[in-house]
Write a structure and sequence with these properties.
4-stranded antiparallel β-sheet; alpha+beta; 6 helices
Length: about 260
Amino acid sequence: MGCLGIHRGAHRGRGSHDQRRLRPRHGLAAYAHRAYRAPITRRADTRRAFTMIEVLVTIGVVLLLVSLALPAMRGAALQAKLTRWLAQTSQYARSVMIYAEDYRGVYPIASEYAPYAAAAWYFPLVTDGHFVQRQDVDPEGRRRVGYVTIWLSQCMLYDPARMLPGKTVPHDEQWSVPVGQHQVPFPSSKGLMYQYRWPVEPVIAMCCGMPIVVGPVAFADGSGMLGTRYDFNFGLEPEPDKNGIGVPVATTWGGYRARDR
């Protein structure tokens, strides 16, 4: 029994001592015990970068879309330019008609030489106050090609009897003559002003042997139209003679008595 008691007491003593060792200590040990936290385990980053193949495929798709859109964008830009040129040509035609009304219906004659007068049609209008200065006329054409690209039809400055096959004369003998608005029998069909040259390309719009382009024409009644040289020559290729007569709108066969559409 005595041994048993001693054993039990010893067991209790050791248990009490072990429990005391497991109790949290005061002071620095207690603070460390409270401050201790289990390490935070970070979640694995599931994001990944694009592969080279994916980048190349994306670039290819973008380039394909751009190539498909470019023709439509160019077409829209060209149509906007044509609309602007037609409005400008029609505006200049109205200015010429207003000038003519002040001079008994006679179209402006800038020179005794008809081909030059057709190109310099705006000189009398500047003198008369319709434009402030010559540089105000066709600034885009001046900037791109160095001169005004919208011209007056020579038919409105020249004898129609000299605009018939076999009756033409050389350029240096084509003298200007007064032509009145009342003399034009088909004002809605006879071109009054046109774009001699495209401001963006070295193309003579109404002449033969050139690329087919669309250009603006303003008629003697004030109306306007966009078309190619075929549209103003009844679907036929123009055949001007060596003296330059026979170009649609510019030097139409038959002069102001003829039709351009």
